[in-house]
Amino acid sequence: MSCLRLVLGDQLSHSLPSLSSVDRQRDVVLLCEVIEEATYVRHHRKKIAFIFSAMRHFADELRAEGYRVDYIRLDDPANSGSLGGELRRAIKRHGPGRVELTQPGEYRVLQEMLQWQRELGLPVEILADSRFVCSLDEFADWASGRKQLRMEFFYREMRRKLGILMDGGQPLGGRWNFDSENRRPPASGLLIPQPHMVEPDDITREVLALVASRFPDNFGDLEPFHFAVTRRDALEALELFITERLAEFGDYQDAMLSGQPWMYHSHISMYLNCGLLEPLECVEAAEQAYREGLAPLNAVEGFIRQLIGWREFVRGIYWLRMPQYRELNALNATRRLPWFYWDGNTEMNCLRQCVTETRQHAYAHHIQRLMVLGNFALLAGIHPHDVNEWFLVVYADAYEWVELPNVTGMSQFADGGFLGSKPYASSGSYIKRMSDYCRSCRYDVKQRTGEDACPFNYLYWDFLERHRSLLSANPRMAMMYRTWDRMDEAERVDILALARSFLDALE
Ligand code: FAD
Ligand code: DLZ
Ligand code: SF4
After folding, report:
1. How many angstroms does the Cα of residue 38 sit away from the middle of ligand 2?
2. I need a surface site. Which of 175, 227, 356, 493 has the fewest CB within 10 A?
3. What is this structure's pTM?
């Protein structure tokens, strides 16, 4: 009985479970570019081009390996526009006895797939996605019965299970976590290596033309386009990170410099999330670099923590808490997202820089996302729906399973502290310490009041005051409340008034 195997745009892995038992003579692998996936949010143009080009290259690789591949292009006149529609058309063409799929990354797509067996009248098997180090069942087991889910404890379990950076039963270096050694401010004169770049080939150029004509008004610069779109090139990006950036990754993980979105980060998330790379091979490459003396432990541990800690943890939380998680709004935030998130037109230099780099590259590193873009939205009380939508649109690595917990949980505290123990809220002083943004800003980061005061400063205190009932009991916030309460009454009144008029003007 032949089998039709639908592979999605973020399932471009040769190790995909639904590709593991293919009969290359009889089975058909279906990949389809569909308008529904390209428009469920108005993705950054680079993200669409990246996924389509990576899909087309992957299809060619499968063909070269002898698979029967049916590839539907977006501009195919008969394209129905949806995954379900294309599956139906492919069933008519190939007459398979059954359909096999790998579990999709997004809840919305899974719900649709769960209807397919009934609608199509033939067996549809959905296999668990094995391209993560922790299965969803294992995560649910780990989470069950715990009062609080904390990444740190989950991460230790993964280290032990995988034997990564372990010395017998103990963590290498005597500590699980070198986070305190991942916070060096950017030194002047840092020689940051060039990011990995690939020149577009004919396939990518064709896709770029398609995206330019079909998505002319979407956010983001389409060109220059230098992403890897094949596994071979993505492996080269990983290799370049390991040899040129990893050693400094630890020290400068939180640092931000104007015009340097890549810093010492790996910029491999888009490749991991669409399947061109697998997490364990990245982890092993980093561990090997440590063992060969190419990178220090604070860097290697920091990088590995992101991959087998945070990345797996947020995925576990997503599947544990969906669909309710999408509706959470613990801080009752109601304001609409300011337009400058799209056009960068603001006098706040930190936000202008981060939005501009996001528009150019469909990338910003973690601290830009968390402590500038996310922090402002948190302080300003932007509705989590708007914030989530923006983050899902603008980054090439954004799929709901990873974007939503990072935004709703880590950044906006909209889950009331389920994912993280305290809100990542900060005044301008954090941005000043960790970046060069404040040097070229119209605002003065040292001022809390007055016309030139940095908005992050008064918004921060206003945020604390607005959420006193929810946050003041949190021991990790206590010191900040004491500082606020000790401030001169007149200054506090000024701060709250400034915040009010700033927020009113945002509307
Ligand atoms: P590096 O800093 O080099 O880290 C290495 C790898 O670790 C990354 O490639 C990524 O796969 C993983 N990683 C690191 N931090 C996280 C994290 N918090 N959650 C999951 N994986 C992590 N990451 C996405 O992949 N997609 C998203 O849509 C996304 N949205 C985010 C939204 C907000 C508000 C925040 C605060 C973070 C978000 N992240 C997201 C996490 C993180 O910012 C990106 O993974 C990282 O910036 C990607 O760049 P990099 O590959 O250079 O990562
Ligand atoms: C993001 C995306 C885009 C833009 N286009 C497609 C597409 O045309 N075909 C496809 O199979 N997948 C696409 N994707 C990725 C899907 O949105 C992703 O597979 C689901 O969100 C599940 O994670
Ligand atoms: Fe951002 Fe404030 Fe610094 Fe300006 S002064 S760059 S608004 S933190």
Report:
1. 7
2. 493
3. 0.97
